[in-house]
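Bumping my old thread because nobody answered last time. Still need a sequence for this structure:
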């Protein structure tokens, strides 16, 4: 078999092919290069579409959890005053204090989430983050533990301790604003930008987590205290 008279030098970079064609069979070689280029383009288009579907599913799941948990927290404001102010026999907070604590914690978490969102969007203008989305998912199992009351020891900061004197109407108003903020940040990060910036979370040894994890952490923290409030409710009813 005679040796080929042509040579193709392919250099793929950032999804584009740069090629030089030498020799006599230029048309055949050009067809090969075009075919490879089209294949590479279709492959990356498929990956981008797959990543888009994946991040949409994750965001939808976080959004649904946000709506459900905040609605359940909101319903707690309708409890009678005696139940809202009831303190469990074995120490613990009243429902009034728990609601205040959830709002306080949300406030400080949202400060970090807001900063992280800004940073992530800035990085998204400069970086191609499609590879970071490939195979991406939340650590659902570890974050699930955040939502389980007394699943681990939680040493909360002093500035998140409730006073019990905060106005319930104001707490409720703040919670509504906080839910809206969570959904707004998720909308700003709808294309996957949230993976680009991580902040350290020491609770339950989570380590550095991205913005999506942080928002879901906030929701799971509120869920954790829903269980605590239900325990208060059960104990209160036993004493009626």
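Sorry it took so long. Here it is:
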């Amino acid at each position: 078999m005679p040796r080929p008279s042509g040579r193709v030098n392919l250099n793929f970079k950032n999804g584009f092919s740069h090629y030089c064609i030498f020799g006599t069979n230029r048309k055949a070689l050009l067809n090969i290069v075009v075919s490879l280029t089209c294949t590479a383009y279709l492959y990356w288009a498929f990956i981008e579409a797959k990543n888009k579907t994946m991040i949409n599913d994750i965001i939808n799941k976080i959004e649904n959890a946000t709506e459900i948990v905040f609605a359940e927290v909101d319903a707690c404001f309708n409890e009678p005053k005696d139940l809202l102010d009831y303190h469990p026999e074995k120490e613990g907070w009243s429902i009034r204090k728990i609601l205040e604590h959830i709002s306080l914690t949300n406030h400080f978490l949202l400060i970090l989430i807001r900063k992280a969102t800004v940073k992530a969007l800035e990085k998204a203008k400069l970086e191609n983050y499609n590879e970071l989305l490939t195979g991406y998912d939340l650590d659902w199992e570890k974050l699930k533990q955040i939502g389980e009351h007394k699943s681990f020891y939680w040493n909360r900061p002093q500035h998140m301790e409730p006073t019990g004197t905060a106005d319930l109407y104001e707490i409720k108003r703040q919670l509504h604003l906080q839910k809206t903020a969570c959904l707004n940040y998720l909308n700003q990060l709808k294309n996957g930008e949230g993976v680009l910036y991580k902040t350290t979370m020491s609770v339950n040894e989570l380590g550095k987590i991205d913005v999506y994890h942080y928002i879901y952490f906030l929701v799971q923290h509120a869920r954790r205290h829903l269980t605590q409030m239900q325990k208060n409710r059960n104990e209160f009813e036993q004493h009626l």
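Residues 1-23 have pLDDT under 50 and may be disordered. Let me know if any region looks off to you.
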